[in-house]
Amino acid sequence: MATLLRSKLSNVATSVSNKSQAKMSGMFARMGFQAATDEEAVGFAHCDDLDMEHRQGLQMDILKSDSGEEGGEPPLEGDIHYQRDGTGPLPPSASKEAGVCSELSGQGKPKITAWEAGWNVTNAIQGMFVLGLPYAILHGGYLGLFLIIFAAVVCCYTGKILIACLYEENEDGEIVRVRDSYVDIANACCAPRFPTLGGRIVNVAQIIELVMTCILYVVVSGNLMYNSFPNLPVSQKSWSIIATAVLLPCAFLKNLKAVSKFSLLCTLAHFVINILVIAYCLSRARDWAWDKVKFYIDVKKFPISIGIIVFSYTSQIFLPSLEGNMQNPKEFHCMMNWTHIAACILKGLFALVAYLTWADETKEVITDNLPSTIRAVVNIFLVAKALLSYPLPFFAAVEVLERSLFQDGNRAFFPNCYGGDGRLKSWGLTLRCALVVFTLLMAIYVPHFALLMGLTGSLTGAGLCFLLPSLFHLKLLWRKLLWHHVFFDVAIFVIGGICSVSGFIHSLEGLIEAFRTNAED
Which residue ranges are recorded for the region named Disordered (predicted)? Predict the structure, then answer.
């Protein structure tokens, strides 16, 4: 009976898919050149969760109507294979959230080309956090450069195997897409005993990364402003408070339509800043300190550098949605290759020439090493980019939290934070303001860009980029894998686990020490 239902469902879903092409999956990717920052990318995963709920509800309606007409039995739990395309009205529980995703990108736009997909991936892995890479070379030498190359290779590979987990072979021997997001893959690996556990783990990791990204923006804003105007009687903490005051209106955000218009300008400005930094470094090529780059590592601080490098490559969370919105998904592997090769070359050159220029004086944010004559101008542009980018991860984190804790039907932990008219209740607004204040408090008590970036990369970056993709690949496709794929997956899981634990412990120790020092002051 289950086989008959699956066959019936496949035929119905095929006819439906001919009428509509991926209405909701990965709306950010359809923005093309407007999906412009690495933090923006996490919105793909959020929209994917909503898509999955929509499609499951749709296929349940199809099964119910078919069984009602033919007098068949209701489908068994866990016997539903939803396709990526679908039409029909949204279920009531998902209508509001789906409206958010449609607001982010707009429906009816054509799918993106491989070049546009590559632009999104490039922005995801070459954002402003590249400014911390020279600091990683300071504590790792040539090994740090090797790690930049190694991380690019591994992240490219894990991105490909993550997409492979979206597909399965049907009864006719055809490879079809049966999953749509990172959460779907995680849930499939934990089914049938714990059908939602994997998705919850991925969502928790996503929320942690989003909130930590917001904290990093506040930290870098305070740091850059303080070092741009050292003669002013304003401390770094005070600059962080000023930045948070500017960001407080984010609590009132209903959509990102206005904010997203600035994303392309922010990205272009960032590339210009990188070019300015490299140009200044090249102008001092005669003074480069090649003798300072050695084959040694700082055992205490190098694990933090691992987290910094890994964090700069995080893009896996939105790759399923991006691949699903490509005009030709077969070009995905080629797109991943050239984007990560380009990222590896640019990151390696940027980190190396910056470190050669300032050697042991390299600071956590490399622009702080620039001469005062141009430092202020460059840093002000970076602060503007950070402040304009902050609403993106903040809004995505709020949406995930509200959906999980306040809008999850009977499973919600708290009453709905929205009224009957769709307006946010006062206590819901208070919670949003509290999240903004929380990012400020963390930035004040732990104002260390490299430590926070290393902690985030070691905890969520390594997990989402190294550990989970290799584990899921082994779990879902182990019967079809060649021996060298099994070897690569196991090696990545072991090496990634060691690096993650080591980096997390050292970053956490550094943060605790910094927290104590700030508390004493």
Answer: 64-97
Contacts of 70 (CB under 8 A, 6+ apart): none
Evaluate if residue 51 carries a pLDDT over 70: no
Task: Decide if 275 is inside a domain.
Answer: yes
Query: Residue by residue, what is the 3-state secondary structure of 298-342?
Result: CCCCHHHHHHHHHHCCCCHHHHHHHHHCECCHHHHHHHHHHHHHH
Residue range(s) defining the domain that contains residue 119: 109-408+424-518
Is pLDDT of 153 > 90? yes
145 within some domain: yes
C-alpha span between 254 and 399 (Å, rounded): 10
Q: Render pLDDT for 309-324 as a digit per residue (tens, 0 to 9).
A: 988 898 888 888 889 8
Assigned domain for 218 exists? yes
- Note the pLDDT of residue 6: 47
Phi, psi angles (nearest 5°) of residue 112: -90, 155
Residue 417 covered by a domain: no
Buried b (16+ CB within 10 A) or exposed e, 417-433: beeeeeebeeebeebbe
**Does residue 192 have a cis bond before it (omega within 30 degrees)?**
yes
Give the CB-side neighbour count of residue 292, counting CA atoms within 13 A. 18
Classify 423 as helix, strand or coil: coil
Q: How far is CA 445 from CA 144, 509, 515, 518, in A?
A: 28, 14, 6, 6
344 close to 149: Cβ distance less than 8 angstroms: yes
Q: What six digits make up the tokens of 183?
A: 């959460």
Amino acid code (one letter) for 81: H
Distance from C-alpha of 428 to C-alpha of 192, rounded to nearest angstrom? 35
Q: What CATH number is attached to the domain comprising 446?
A: 1.20.1740.10
Domain count across the chain = 1
CA pair distance 190, 193, nearest whole angstrom: 7
d(CA 99, CA 426): 22
